[in-house]
Amino acid sequence: MEADEALARLRARGFAEDDVERLFAHFSEAETRGKLGHGFSRVEWLETLEIDPSAQPETVEAEGSFERWHGRGALGYLVLDAVVRTQLADPPERARLVVCEQTFPTGMLGGWVRRLAQGGLVALLTATSPPRLGPPGGPKLAGTNPLAIGIPSSSDEPVVVDVSMGAVTWGDVIAGLADEEQLVPFGGAQWHKALALAVGLQLVVDALHREDGFGAVLLVARPESDPVPALRSLGARLPGDTA
Fold first, then answer.
1. Which residues in the chain land under pLDDT 70?
2. What are φ and ψ of residue 173, in 5° steps?
3. Distance CA 26, CA 21 (A)
4. To which H or E segment does residue 9 belong?
5. Cα separation, 218 vs 65, whole angstroms
6. CA atoms within 13 A of residue 122's CA, in its CB half-sphere
7. At what angle do helices 17-32 and 3-12 cross, to 10 degrees?
8. Which residues pair with 95 in a beta bridge?
């Protein structure tokens, strides 16, 4: 799907123009970074979901170092977009934990933490999804539950780590880049390590939620030091770099 078609199909779903632009920006960044499973292929997938394009997320708690958001029927992309914009407009004094309930789908998590890191904040984000990972021949225990980390830098682009616990992502399956049978914990013979991390992240999010459902947990903080320039001086390509 080309960019013009993606825009037209988002508008045809009835989203407000601001939301169309926010969704398109996220999908476009995924395309640019080669994460096609989170790119324009998601527009067609969204058309298979029952959604309310007018729904808007709500902040239900805000106590300085803690926030709780509820999707209220809005797409998870738009919930996290609102959360990111709020953190950048009103950064924590030191650190803040943000719990997002009924927040799905959440897209390319690295895109959200990158925006926070570009705004000078350290960010750690995880999100849950339908259970697709489990032991060989066993039940599905957890979603692919990616973990994304963004670290700002005073002299260059931030470092952005974004790792799914699957050998492939569900987005790869949606985009036709992988078969569902390939969606197993990464690591080969050491698959149990990825599954353990997926289960741990699943339980962290679930334990902080008040309702059943998928969601996200974000930790955002002001940095106390600037470690990225020294790491870049070693000359290696760092996670999240495009070249």
1. 243
2. -65, -45
3. 9
4. helix 3-12
5. 12
6. 14
7. 150
8. 221
**Coil, strand or helix: which one is 240?**
coil
User: Could you tell me which residues come within 8 angstroms of residue 49 by beta carbon, excluding any fewer than 6 positions away?
Assistant: none
* pLDDT, tens only, 46-55: 999 899 999 9
Which 3 state secondary structure label does DSSP give 38?
Answer: helix
Residue 29 near residue 115 (C-beta atoms within 8 A):
no
Residue 167, token pair as written in the block:
């050998």
Give yes or no for a contact between 169 and 45, defined as CB atoms under 8 angstroms apart: no
Residue type, 185: P
Tokens of 122: 């350290």
**DSSP result, 75-98:** -HHHHHHHHHHHHHHS--SSEEEE
pLDDT of residue 175: 80
Q: What is the per-residue burial (b if ≥16 Cβ within 10 Å, else e) of 154-172? A: eeebbbbbbbbbbbbbbbb
Closest of 84, 86, 82, 25 to residue 55, by C-alpha: 82
pLDDT tens profile 188-239 = 999 999 999 999 999 999 999 999 999 999 999 999 999 999 999 999 999 9
Burial class (CB in 10 A: 0-12, 13-18, 19+), 123: buried
Exposed e or buried b per residue across 56-89, where buried means at least 16 C-beta atoms within 10 angstroms of its C-beta: ebeeeeeeeeebbbbbeebbbbbbbbbbbebbee
pLDDT at site 127: 98
